User: What shape does this take?
Amino acid sequence: MKVVIVESPAKAKTINKYLGNDYEVYASFGHVRDLPSKDGSVRPDEDFAMSWEVDSASKKRLAEISGAVKNADEIILATDPDREGEAISWHVLDVLHAKKLIKDKPVKRVVFNAITKNAVTEAMLHPRDIDAPLVDAYLARRALDYLVGFTLSPILWRKLPGSRSAGRVQSVTLRLVCDRETEIERFKPQEYWSVLATLIEKGKPFETRLYAVDGKKSDKLDIANGDDAAALKKAIEAGKFKVASVDKKPTKRNPYAPFTTSTLQQDASSRLGFSPSRTMQIAQRLYEDGRITYMRTDAVQMAPEGITMARDAILSVFGAEYLPEKPRIYQSKAKNAQEAHEAIRPTDMMVHPDKLKIDADQLKLYGLIWRRTLASQMKAAEIERTTADIAVETPGREVTLRAVGSVVTFPGFLTLYGVEASTDKTDEDEDSRELPPINVGDTPALEKCDIEQHFTQPPPRFTEASLIKKMEELGIGRPSTYAATISVLQDRDYVRLEKRALIPEDRGRLVTAFLESFFTKYVEFGFTAGLEEKLDQVSAGEIAYKDVLRDFWEDFSSHTAEIKDLRVSEVLDALNEMLGHHIFPAKEDGSDPRLCPTCGEGQLSLKLGKYGAFIGCSNYPECRHTAQLSDSATGQSEATAGDSEIGADPETGEMIFLKTGRFGPYLQLGDGKEAKRASLPKGWEPASIDMEKALKLLALPREVGAHPETGTAITAGIGRYGPFVLHDGKYANLPDVEEVFTVGLNRAVDLLAAKAAGGGRRGSTPAVVKALGDHPDGGAITVRDGRYGPYVNYAKINATLPKDMKPEDVTLEQALELIAAKGGKTKAKAKPKAKAKAKPKAAAKPKAAAKPKATKAKKASA
Assistant: This one.
């Protein structure tokens, strides 16, 4: 029997169909081991030794695989054809070696780029050993990510409270998003005007734009105000028009290369609205079902059989006129050797999307891949572009208008996207208007002239697709990491996705500012890309992976050692400097944006509290003005509808909200289920709550002092029945809410004594005479002075004391007997039953006989 190990059950199911009875296919369910999330999993002092951990779910998978391997004649590792797939095979084999299950059994590694019968059977005929350089590249990347994360993150937590984590690729990607937001904030729009004239020739209107004024080509920003635009409009309306030149130029538009991981994610985002992670999930299912080739790749090349298949499909579907004489060959720009070496394509190009019965999302993505693949091997589209310059004869001005149009003379690959020779749009929705027949010397008439005001726009925010494109351009990350990296940034609340745009949260901007200030080198795009190139060299077997780790760690560890001694004041100075434009944007009236609005004297600046950053006044504690960081620049609140904000707690930095619930208005410190809350007492109007009152309420209950007789604390607070003081389970009411904040020790002792002497009013909790201790089943036992005499209390059981028993003389043993006699009879009987059940469990050694059954089941499954 031959045991085949893959990573997913879906893949195992598909492969099972292609292999004979001599094979059994098992799934590892992805990685079976990982570095434990604790310090010391990678040890630089031990030549970068790494400790691996198997989680409980993977233990079950490995146990199943191990059971099968025991009886196997051969082990075949058939995980994915990339670095991660190689690493999974290496991990599984390492575990099997540790269990001493391999012995002299042959171990083979096979790879296939598509899960088809031909690809799988062909791969079985050409096995190889595990690719050691690919495994080394995986180990290096994993160690680097661990060392950066577990070194940087603790520094962030200490120096920048509220931060979540930092990562080698994650932090650089976050910087891209933050840098773009800074560009947008600092952008100053510039006014400009456009001049458009609609002319008519041979009864057909066509649009022209201002091209030149007084012999000088007009730039987009040359017309800077409405007066100049109006003057040009007046001149054009008064002029006569004559076609000065017509230039007809045939051009070709070539198809794009087949999809890589990056281009698939980008195209699926722009055309289908899929997020990168969703695209990869759908592509994974298509791959495991044998519909497409492996979907994690940097390559644009297709295998020879793929090219042949595409050309045959083009010939069959579109005809010979759409098929170029020679196949199109594309070259990958990426240098890495760690990903699959073929582009993403259908495994069978003859399978038209219309013929497939799969779920809607899979069908959409398959159609996108099918069209892109076939288009890549089709003839170019042929387009005739016409450019006509029209001179405007007008007194005192020399004006030239230009009209541009194009006609698709042969659609070529655009046919796949529904473009025929007569259409006006390409697959990119390119503006390609057709001009009327026009010749030099023609004198078109003016239909209308329009002028329009515009302002230059800042660069757009990154979408997930455009961010991936930028990451690829800069060499940050690799295909298998793009979607995961962006997901981590969102999970950490460093960025948010809003109308498909990625917007950095203040938490993310703080982290970026901190890293740029104190870890500059490690968030530089060039440094990160350079490290990726070294990892690619490891993949190619050109350099040793531990050399890469040593070079990195020597510099990184010494730098982090220096940063550990950084003072909080230095961190705040750097953050205030870098984020000042964002936190304190310039005011329209020109006044100081940092001037405290409460005291009118202090300067506002960034402060760090236990739970993160907030805005505070330099006159603290005299001035307690605070503001949440996210509101400081925008003036917007993160509170839910109907909430209002009092300000940030000066000690913790958490925002204090004034909310309204089902029982009335209340205060809340921070967010989440564990947030501290305090109801507003009767007579306190929500409008009257300021920071001082809020802090007082949230500080309750307050400790008044130690009782002079018992030494235990007396506290003051506000409860369901109003303000009170409390000592040793005894309450005494306060006549006024304000007194809860000012009541002193003497006053509290007097109130408690008066309450005890009065015996308590009806409905109040009876006074505790004596605390006896805890019941064996848990819970306090006390002697209380009730309305009808003293009694023993335990939970909801009240047992009246015999007339001859004094409350102060009752012992715990006596109390237990009274409780058992009153309400604990069933409890007393239940105890022996519990013991009786426990005995067979403890003595049930014969149940070990169940083990042979499990063994038989294993053998049967094997």
Observations:
- The radius of gyration is 38 Å.
- The domain at 191-248+383-455 is CATH 2.70.20.10 (Topoisomerase I; domain 3).
